[in-house]
Design goal:
This protein has 444 residues and is α+β, with helices and mostly antiparallel strands. The protein contains 12 helices and 26 strands. The structure holds glycyl-adenosine-5'-phosphate.
Length: 444
C-alpha cells in the first residue's frame, strides 16, 4: 500500500485534502490523472447501467437532504456505529476495531485495556439551511444517494411511463462522519457512490438479486479486475438489515485484506413503504394488465467509486524487468490498467525534441488523435524514460515519430510511426492515417 499511496501522490492521482494545512482526516482530492480515471469508471458504469439498457433511467438528486426523508428511511434514528474511547491514548474507535488478546479487548493503537462502554455515534453530517438556527433549519448531507431515488420514484415513473421491472440510477457524493477513516481512500468521510434502485414485483426480487450480482461481477471483470480476486459474501441473516431478504457483498482482495467493494441487496418494499408512510403520498404502482395496485420491491446494487478506483490501482500496480537505454535490465513500475480505464490512452513522442520536422509531425499526430482519445505529448528526455513515465501511469499505447516517419531511410515507411504496447513492450509500424481506427479498436 505504501508504494501505491506514494505513486498516487507523486503522479497526481490522489492527494490528501487540504494538505498544505496539515490535511483533514478522511478526505481526499483527486489530481489530474485521478479525475480522469474516476471519470472513466463513472462513464463506463453509466454507459452499461443506463445507456445500454431500455429499463434504467438516470437522475441526479440534491446532496442536502430534508430531515423527514432521513427520518423515514431510518437514518436519523439508526445510522450509527458503536463507538468506544480508549482512556489511555484517547483514541475514538469503532467497536469492531478493537483487538482481542487472551479474551480481553484492547485498543489497537496503544494496547490499553481501559475502554469506555460502547455508545452509538450517528454518522450523518448535520447542517443548517437558511438564516434561522432552530430545529426547523436542520438538514443533512446525504449518507447515500439512494434516498433521493426513492423519494423521486413517483415523479420518474410518471414522466417515463415505464413498466416494472425498471430502475433509476444515480452517481454522486455521499457523506459519513466515519469514526476511524482508514486504508487510504477505502473508508473516507466524503465519497462517491454509483447506485441503482431496480424496482420490481415482489415475486421477482430473489431472481433479480441473483441477476444483478452476476451483472456486477461481469462489470468488474470488464474494467480489468480479475475474477479470482473478487469474492461474493452472502451476508448472514443476523447481519442483514431486518427488511432485506438477501444481501451479497462483492469483495476484493485489497493489499490490506479482503474488503467490500459493493453491496447488492434485495430491500423488499421497505424504502418506498417508509416514504409513503412518512410523506402521506402514495408511492404505489398500478399494473394496467392485472389492475393490481402495490408498492414495488427493489433490488439495489450499490458501488463505491473511490473504492473501485483504489481497487483498479491496486490491481494494475506491478513491477517487472525491462532494459534501460543501454540494454541493462532495470525494474519497471507499470500500472496495467484496462485501456478503457486508463487516464491517458496514448503518449505521442518525437524521437528528438530539437528536430523541427519530428516535432511538427508529432504535433500533427496529436491534433489527429485528440478528437478521439486522451493523448499526452512528451518530448523531454530519452525515449526510454518517456516510455517509463507513461508505463507508470498506465498509458496503454505510445506513438513515436522517428526518422523513418520522415521517409529518410526508406520511402515506404514515410508517414508511419512506431506504436508501442505498454504490457508487451512490442512495437509495430502503423500508418499515421490509420492510427485513430487502430487505437479506437484496441481501446474498446
Ligand atoms: N444504499 C446502500 C448503501 O449505501 P453501503 O454498503 O453503506 O450501502 C455502498 O454503501 C457502497 O458505498 C459500499 O460498498 C462502498 O463501496 C461505498 N462506501 C460506503 N461507505 C464508504 C466510505 N466511508 N468510504 C468510501 N466508500 C464507501
Amino acid at each position: 500500500m505504501e508504494k501505491i499511496v506514494s505513486l498516487c501522490k507523486r503522479r497526481g492521482f490522489i492527494f490528501q485534502s487540504s494538505e498544505i494545512y496539515g490535511g483533514l482526516n478522511g478526505l481526499w482530492d483527486y489530481g489530474p490523472l485521478g479525475v480522469e480515471l474516476k471519470r472513466n469508471l463513472k462513464n463506463y458504469w453509466w454507459q452499461v447501467i443506463v445507456h445500454e439498457r431500455d429499463d434504467v433511467l438516470g437522475m441526479d438528486g440534491s446532496i442536502l437532504t430534508h430531515p423527514a426523508v432521513l427520518k423515514a428511511s431510518g437514518h436519523v434514528e439508526g445510522f450509527s456505529d458503536p463507538m468506544i474511547d480508549c482512556r489511555t491514548c484517547k483514541a475514538h474507535l469503532r467497536a469492531d476495531q478493537l483487538v482481542e488478546k487472551k479474551g480481553v479487548k484492547q485498543c489497537p493503537n496503544c494496547g490499553g485495556k481501559d475502554l469506555t462502554a460502547p455508545r452509538q455515534f450517528n454518522l450523518m453530517f448535520e447542517t443548517r439551511v437558511g438564516a434561522t438556527t432552530d430545529e426547523s433549519s436542520i438538514a443533512y448531507l446525504r449518507p447515500e444517494t439512494a434516498q433521493s431515488i426513492f423519494v423521486q420514484f413517483k415523479n420518474v415513473l410518471e414522466v417515463s411511463r415505464k413498466k416494472l421491472p425498471f430502475g433509476i440510477a444515480q452517481i454522486g457524493k455521499a457523506f459519513r462522519n466515519e469514526i476511524n477513516p482508514r486504508n487510504f481512500t477505502f473508508r473516507s468521510r466524503e465519497f462517491e457512490q454509483m447506485e441503482l434502485e431496480y424496482f420490481c414485483r415482489p415475486e421477482q426480487g430473489m431472481e433479480l438479486l441473483e441477476y444483478w450480482k452476476e451483472e456486477r461481477l461481469r462489470f468488474y471483470e470488464n474494467i480489468g479486475i480479475q475474477r479470482s480476486k473478487l469474492h461474493v459474501l452472502t451476508v448472514p441473516d443476523e447481519e442483514r438489515a431486518f427488511y432485506s431478504k438477501g444481501t451479497y457483498d462483492i469483495e476484493y482482495d485489497f493489499p490490506f485484506g479482503r474488503q467490500e467493494l459493493e453491496g447488492v441487496a434485495y430491500r423488499t418494499d421497505y424504502d418506498l413503504s417508509q416514504h409513503q408512510k412518512g410523506s402521506g403520498k402514495s408511492l404505489e404502482y398500478f399494473d394496467e394488465e392485472t389492475k393490481q395496485r402495490f408498492v414495488p420491491h427493489v433490488v439495489e446494487p450499490s458501488a463505491g467509486v473511490d473504492r473501485t478506483v483504489l481497487a483498479l490501482i491496486c490491481e494494475a500496480y506491478s513491477e517487472d524487468q525491462a532494459p534501460d537505454e543501454k540494454g541493462k535490465m532495470e525494474t519497471r513500475m507499470v500500472l496495467r490498467l484496462h485501456p478503457r480505464m486508463a487516464p491517458v490512452k496514448c503518449g505521442v513522442f518525437p524521437l528528438l525534441k530539437n528536430n523541427p520536422q519530428l516535432v511538427a509531425k508529432a504535433k500533427e499526430i496529436l491534433d489527429l488523435l485528440r478528437p478521439h482519445l486522451v493523448v499526452f505529448y512528451d518530448e523531454s528526455g530519452a525515449i526510454g524514460r518517456r516510455y517509463r513515465r507513461q508505463d507508470e501511469i498506465g498509458t496503454p499505447f505510445g506513438v513515436t515519430v522517428d526518422f523513418e516517419t520522415l521517409g529518410e531511410r526508406d520511402a515506404a515507411l514515410r508517414d508511419t510511426v512506431t506504436l508501442r504496447d505498454r504490457d508487451s513492450m512490442k512495437q509495430e509500424r502503423v500508418a499515421i492515417p490509420d492510427l485513430p481506427t487502430v487505437l479506437r479498436d484496441r481501446l474498446s
